[in-house]
Design a protein that fits this description.
Elements: H1 3-11, E1 15-24, E2 30-38, E3 45-51, H2 66-86, E4 99-112, E5 117-129, H3 145-162, E6 164-165, H4 188-193, H5 198-211, E7 215-219, E8 228-230, E9 237-239, E10 246-248, H6 251-261, H7 264-289, H8 295-302, H9 305-320, H10 329-344
Antiparallel strand pairs: 1-2, 2-3, 3-5, 4-5, 6-7, 7-10, 8-9
Helix pairs in contact: 3-6, 3-7, 5-9, 5-10, 6-9, 9-10
Bound molecules: adenosine-5'-triphosphate and magnesium ion (MG).
Length: about 350
């Protein structure tokens, strides 16, 4: 079945027309396409995330391997699982696209996500509502502090919605057992090429601190500014790109988001206020969504992990691309705070 036939069938519409490619996916793995559709009770357009992996992939930085190829394929499978089994639980400020259908052309290769063995999709179509049509037509590369707070509100409500006290190992089914794409367990090549440093020596302690926290939620896993779609006056936001959604401490999304959209100077000046904003929104959102959980206990555990999460991401940057602008004085300062906290709590990890 081709894409047009699948859209006709799922949306029960009369006509479908490919309008434009919004962008190609990472390393030639597919594209995001906008389709115009016609029919009673149909939206005017939809977005199709069309995954069609290359037979011989070419990674831009030379880390190409079977391992990274397989992880990429799994990431699309996770995104499909997210839209099919989890996304409907999002509401209020954490807006996400509606999913109209998932067409998977399953290969017979077995790979591991969570809860046992799963199959990876060789080709996959994810039909999504068009966020531009839903009023989220603005894309941003950098943000003011006020605009960044809109996304941080999104994160806090998202984290509150899925917050768990000591979840068992099978949670979250079908998603990554550890969310994000940079955690140590998946980055041994980058770790190996890091020059020796206190951060390198502390990498597994930082990783353990993050992974052994009592309160876990779903982290978006790639919550950079490019994955948020804004309303015209930037007071509302929706998120896309759930390929790395999985279990984790909410601080992982917060540090990555802040690093993606603010200048180093903004970070120095405003990070404490942004942490305050996050926790005040988490408190509000927990009362709405998960009121049996004790906000103060969550806050006590997660606040210090802001620095740990920042240092953990800095570990990835130093191995992956040490000349990257994210390796800056602010990141080094956050890392130093995290490393000091490890020393002062040593023996308690
Ligand atoms: N439902 C949607 N409505 C409107 N725009 C969308 C929608 N989904 C995606 N987009 C736009 O397309 C861009 C790319 O989508 P997405 O982030 O899912 O793919 P990607 O990051 O390129 O995937 P990959 O990491 O595999 O390369 C988004 O940043 C967003 O601007
Ligand atoms: Mg993206």
């Amino acid at each position: 079945m081709n894409t047009e036939e699948y859209i006709l069938q799922r949306l029960n519409c009369n006509a479908v027309q490919r309008l434009e490619s919004v962008q190609t996916l990472w390393s030639g793995y597919g594209e995001i396409v906008r389709y115009r559709i016609k029919g009673e009770h149909c939206p005017e357009s939809i977005i199709v995330k069309s995954v069609s992996p290359p037979t011989e992939s070419a990674h831009p930085r030379g880390w190409d391997s079977q391992h990274s190829h397989r992880r990429k394929l799994l990431s699309y499978r996770v995104e499909a699982n997210w839209y099919r089994d989890w996304a409907l639980q999002c509401s209020g400020p954490s807006f996400v696209p509606e999913c109209f259908g998932i067409l998977e052309d399953i290969s017979h290769e077995n790979s591991q996500i969570n809860a046992g063995s799963v199959q990876t999709a060789e080709k996959c179509l994810i039909l999504l509502s068009d966020l531009d049509q839903a009023g989220f037509m603005v894309r941003k590369k950098s943000l003011t502090i006020e605009q960044s707070k809109v996304c941080i509100t999104w994160l806090a409500h998202f984290h509150a919605r899925f917050l768990q006290d000591s979840p068992d190992k099978t949670w979250p089914e079908g998603l990554w057992p550890i969310g994000t794409y940079w955690h140590l367990g998946t980055r041994s090549d980058e770790y190996a090429v890091m020059p020796d440093s206190p951060l390198k020596s502390a990498a597994s302690d930082l990783d353990l601190k993050l992974n052994s926290c009592r309160f876990k939620t779903l982290v978006h896993g790639d919550a950079k500014v490019a994955n948020f779609c804004f309303s015209q006056n930037c007071d509302r936001v929706a998120a896309v790109d759930f390929q790395y959604v999985g279990a984790g401490c909410g601080m992982k999304d917060l540090i990555y988001f802040i690093g993606s959209c603010l200048t180093e100077e903004q970070c120095h000046l405003e990070y404490e206020e942004l942490i305050e904003h996050y926790f005040s929104q988490l408190s509000v959102a927990l009362k709405l969504n998960n009121s049996h959980l004790d906000f103060e206990m969550v806050e006590r555990e997660w606040r210090p992990l802001f620095f740990v999460a920042w240092a953990d991401f800095q570990r990835f940057i130093l191995g992956w691309s040490p000349d990257h602008p994210k390796n800056n004085g602010f990141s080094q300062k956050m890392t130093d705070i995290a490393l000091e906290s490890l020393v002062s709590s040593s023996g308690k990890i």
